[in-house]
Design goal:
Blueprint: H1 6-27, E1 33-38, E2 43-46, H2 57-74, E3 77-87, E4 98-106, E5 109-119, H3 123-129, E6 135-137, E7 141-144
Antiparallel strand pairs: 1-2, 1-3, 3-4, 4-5, 5-6, 5-7
Length: about 160
């Protein structure tokens, strides 16, 4: 399989960020979800419905991580991104405590991208007016980390 370009990884990140921004604006948060680049180089969405009962976000994230690892082991994916609604670690000096975190990984590349945010007051009125934002975002914070699914070096 050929290496994944930085442009493809950026598209994968944008795909997750856009959906998360939509969910945050509509409901103030979201359950973990993801996307991946398949063998053909196309982006596909990834979600999980574990049961009819609401599940803990950590449990859903772990389930998605396991599904991604299985697909990678079979050689079905070239890269992936998993998005979660998290508390931004204090050591990152974020202006807001809440954040959208996307883990983007491909062979030789593994990074968390945090986008801190805060819900703005009077959300119902802001949503009704449709021209006022309901969420304020800060600049993204990227953190390199050890690969979880793919090897550290491209093959």
């Amino acid at each position: 399989m050929q290496p994944v370009s930085i442009d493809a990884l950026a598209s994968l990140l944008r795909n997750c960020e856009q959906f998360a921004h939509q969910r945050i604006a509509e409901s103030g948060g979201f359950h973990p979800f993801g996307a991946f680049i398949n063998r053909a180089g196309d982006i596909e969405a990834l979600g999980a419905q574990l049961s009819a009962e609401p599940r803990d976000s950590f449990e859903v994230y772990e389930f998605l991580e396991g599904a991604i690892a299985e697909m990678a082991h079979r050689g079905d994916i070239r890269a992936y991104a998993l998005a979660a609604n998290v508390a931004v670690p204090q050591q990152l000096a974020s202006p807001f405590p809440d954040g959208l975190r996307v883990h983007v990984e491909a062979p030789g590349y593994s990074r968390f991208v945090y986008t801190p945010y805060r819900l703005l007051p009077y959300r119902a009125i802001r949503r009704f007016l449709a021209v006022l934002p309901t969420v304020e975002y800060s600049d993204p914070i990227a953190v390199d980390l050890r690969a979880k699914v793919f090897s550290e070096t491209p093959s």
